[in-house]
Write a structure and sequence with these properties.
mainly beta; elongated; 32% strand; Ig-like_dom_sf
Length: 63
């Protein structure tokens, strides 16, 4: 379990007004469109460790 209050978050996407990071570090995308479809990755690093944990998600939009 991660505590989002201790994380430094850098958004590298162009639609940050539609993104939320929850307390359990879930990323919530709002008002999804077909253009949002694709590969998303998240890199997480605890300050005490040099290595990153990487998660990759492929988003498919179905209408």
């Amino acid at each position: 379990m991660f505590d989002s209050s201790s994380l430094f978050v850098i958004w590298t996407v162009t639609f940050t007004e539609r993104l939320d990071l929850t307390e359990d570090c879930s990323l919530v995308l709002k008002k999804i469109t077909a253009e949002d479809e694709g590969r998303y990755s998240c890199r997480l690093r605890k300050p005490s460790r040099p290595q990153f944990t990487v998660a990759v998600v492929y988003l498919t939009v179905i209408r």
